[in-house]
Amino acid sequence: MTILFPIPENHHQRFSLHNEVHARAHITLKLPVTSSFLALSLNSEERNLERLHLEKLCDRYGVPGPKEDASYFRATLDSFKISWEQHAEFSSYSFYDQNNIEAPFSKLAIELVPIDWLTQLPGKTIVAAHASIIDSSTPSVSSIQSISSFFSGNCVVGAEVTGGAARAFTDFKIHADGFSRFLILDDHLKSGQAGRLLQRLFEIEVYRVMALLAFPIAKQLTPELKKANHQLLSITSAMANSKGNDSDLLDELTTLASQIENNIATHQYRFGAANAYYKLVEQRIDELREKRIQGIQTIGEFMKKRLEPAINTCTSTFKRFNSLSKRINNAGQLLRTRVDMAIERQNQALLTSMDLRAKMQLRLQETVEGLSIVAITSYIVSFIGSMTKAANTSDKIDINPTLATALSIPIVLLLVALGVRRIHKKIHTWNED
């Protein structure tokens, strides 16, 4: 009897998060088995169509399709099993034909899938692979030479995997049918181990291809990187020359910075994804627990030799772009400082010139004011002279106009000067307020 305890209300995502660790459990297979794998890149419209397309296949076999929000789905459809997973940038389909006792790659799991449904799958193929697990005692796989014959005579890589329970071989090449191949020899694999092993091998294949999507971009950007480095060197060399035009250099540097930042923003996701996918490849290889088979490379050694240099190129290219961006930023700060200092010197010279002009205007104004005092005094004295002359026409007043005018000159001059000085003090007080 289940006892329910009065615990607080569940978080709305509690059960979905709790069950996430069980979401993509490895498939259980009956050996021997052959499998076909497809990884398809899709745009947003195709991602909506693929679930509907998968439902059509399920309807054909009378099996419930995936839920509306599902990102993975597994089912047994008559004579084969199907596993579908939707990832951030691609979707994968795995088809399994169990108890297949045919020779490796003679009867393929994908042959059981309806052709009309297969040809209408939305998306673009980025990985297609066949895998076959057969008993290691099969005479046709008794030696490396016989194993190589299943890979068109190509040099194979492989190792003991899953703690010695099996041996896995591949040539990492696309064959005439458009598929790569994996051959697994079953020494004492369990059904659960077989499903995990196949999934790891398929994931190594798809993740390595997804990681390499950044490699063509890195090669494409290398000439641009060299050109930008040369342009930055030219700008910094011109900066060292004091005769250079800082404003023109700053415009050129700003244009270069915008180009570099545009490249970083455009390709940052792709380069970051390349490193993430490469780490997944390394993780899946570690999970294989490889043991060397004398005379051939292990899968891990092959990947380290062939894949790691390309990833290092991508990482190096992106780091060089970031380093170039920082150098451009440093040069820009230095150049802006020089431009600001030049503008400050120009402003200082302009202020000095304006101050000199103000002093000249003040002196001119003082000169004009002196002349104004004389003019005002002359006008007032003339007015006084006219008044004394008019008063002298009376018999009762006897004033000498010339003497009165002469005596009024210093008095009027002093009064006018004091009046002008008082006006200056008033103006100065207003300016201070």
How would you describe what is shown here?
The structure is a single chain. Strands 2-3-4-1-5-8-7-6-9 form a 9-stranded mixed beta sheet, covered by helices on one side. The protein has helices at residues 14-18, 44-60, 115-119, 144-148, 191-211, 214-240, 246-288, 299-306, 308-392, 401-432, and strands spanning 33-41, 72-77, 80-86, 90-98, 124-135, 157-161, 166-170, 180-186, 291-292. α5 (191-211) packs antiparallel against α7, α6 (214-240) packs antiparallel against α7 and α9 runs antiparallel to α10 (401-432). With 433 residues, it is α+β, with helices and mostly antiparallel strands. β3 and β4 form a beta hairpin. 57% of the residues lie in helices and 14% in strands. The model has no long low-confidence stretch (mean pLDDT 86). It has 3 domains: 25-208, no CATH class; 214-348, Methane Monooxygenase Hydroxylase, Chain G, domain 1 (Up-down Bundle), CATH 1.20.58; 362-427. The radius of gyration is 46 Å and the shape is elongated. It is built from 10 helices and 9 strands. The longest helix is centred in the C-terminal third of the chain and has 85 residues, at 308-392.
